[in-house]
Design a protein that fits this description.
The structure is a homodimer of 334-residue chains.
Chain A: E1 21-26, E2 30-37, E3 40-41, E4 46-49, H1 54-69, E5 76-81, E6 84-86, E7 91-94, H2 107-115, E8 119-123, H3 124-135, E9 143-149, E10 153-159, E11 162-164, H4 196-199, H5 201-212, H6 231-239, H7 243-267, E12 271-275, H8 284-293, H9 297-300, E13 305-307, H10 314-330
Helix pairs in contact in A: 1-2, 3-10, 5-7, 6-7, 7-8
Chain lengths: 334, 334
Amino acid sequence: MTEKTITSSSVDSFVKTRMPAVGVDLGGTKIRAAAVLDSKLVSEPMQVATPSGPENIVQAIIDLIGNFQKDCVLSGVGIATAGIVNCDTGEIVGSTGNLPGWAGTPLKQMLEAKTMLPTLVDNDANAAAYGEASARELMNTSCISVVTLGTGIGGGLIINGKLFRGAHWGGGEIGHIRISMGNKRLCTCGLFDCWEAYGAGRGLVATARDILSGLSSNQTPLCALGEKLTTYAIVDAARSGDIVAQRAMDSWHEHIAAGLVNLAHILDPDAFIITGGMAECVDFSLLHEMVTDRCLPRVGENLMIHKSNLGGMAGIVGAGQLVLDSLAEKQLPT
Amino acid sequence: MTEKTITSSSVDSFVKTRMPAVGVDLGGTKIRAAAVLDSKLVSEPMQVATPSGPENIVQAIIDLIGNFQKDCVLSGVGIATAGIVNCDTGEIVGSTGNLPGWAGTPLKQMLEAKTMLPTLVDNDANAAAYGEASARELMNTSCISVVTLGTGIGGGLIINGKLFRGAHWGGGEIGHIRISMGNKRLCTCGLFDCWEAYGAGRGLVATARDILSGLSSNQTPLCALGEKLTTYAIVDAARSGDIVAQRAMDSWHEHIAAGLVNLAHILDPDAFIITGGMAECVDFSLLHEMVTDRCLPRVGENLMIHKSNLGGMAGIVGAGQLVLDSLAEKQLPT
């Protein structure tokens, strides 16, 4: 575990909302945390491996928070967690394969009892979306649609400066919109033709396999990889001039565009922000051209697609800033 | 033109927001209007044919409003118009084929100058959505998605009790989300594979034509209709037991479901409300089953799909109620 102190210049102890919050990003393999103020990290991030079992996870988070409390007065704690969260109660209401047994954990209640700090819990995609939008000072807008391209596709929506969570904490399941008919490709969720079955990293590999079937190693070295074919192998091959890999990459951009076109016609957002590991592999100029070309002119002409500025830190920044903004609102005269 | 008086019992002249507003629904062929209070009509609707040219249309609306003013004190005027509207200024910013020359009309300004009544202008799909949601007392919800199935598909979104209009007054162009790949069917907008090219009335006819190609009049009397094939002919034939027509109806329900599945995964709405002329032809039980079946369980299990209660009056009710609610908000202490 690395540990760094927070500079005292970033802390104004006279105004509660000028004190940093700790943002925590809880994933299946690691828990990361940092102090956050003004939509920025104001400490080095710390990280520990995710232990097994809810009790151990909660204790690990408490220990991380304790490390920050040694150095400064904190205003609150924001947690970005995998799974579905009831943000009113701070309870995990939907499970995730990466954190067995996590559903049902009253996380906010458990943390507040131990740390005495106001705590806010949200889904990791929502927190990342909030981080991306607030770091770009895009909160004073009608709609920001943040799309996380990774192994799957997730997303978060900021509408009128607030996270939009849907009626049953299930908004933003954008990876599972259908972009094709005919049950052509099975998604890991059990449905067919979901956006993420085409547009996520896993989708790129599936598209490349479709193209490779019937080709031989004489035509592209990708054939020899067989089951070892990865997104990185495809991206590297395309950059090296392999035309088969380039065709897979073109199709992959078409598939990403299809989902963005749907979001654009429903939401007419001020901007899209693309984040997640696979964002690094996107040709943003090509993607913008494709999306604009497939939108009604009045929807496409104003369309903005940004690449994430925060990368892997978006969840931490968003979780921290969510609790800061929530405290600031509570201080408004009612 | 029919004309009826407003009962004085529906008017409380001591409280401005207890006075009715006039809701006006401006379409390509007719202008309809009625007095609205508490999300209900409180007069018989009146209608006139839509004259040609913006000046004549505005005068016709003023004349209609004058008819209501004879009978009661009005609090304001709400206009539901085809085309894209800047709701801040009440100007028509995007044209529609049905109202040539309408774009650029500063409608709110022109009406307020003549009637001296506070006026609010919105897109007809938005107004209809507001009417449907407010008449069902669904404004205190996270998200209501109203889908208008007619010749095309339109829609309106109510998010946190307010109409969501998008960043550039273009939100809710839901008819143009893509539900298929491969440029299979051209939409009237010039794009391919739009939802409305499959799920609207026009889409049902196109689907039936696809099925009919290669069949003969011995197999279904629909073949003999040729270019005269209509949605009503297909719906009637299906109800009479024609299996070809029934297959077209099944596909049409699948196509409607595809778009609703996408909206559900993005928005997780409290409810869908289906309105428009083609809503009459929908088997709501079948549609609900299809949508639920194609959603993630946590999205599908809470899904509600209502059929419109207001039918063709939704735009009038919504336009009237929008101006009433806007006046009520202005009376809140700031």
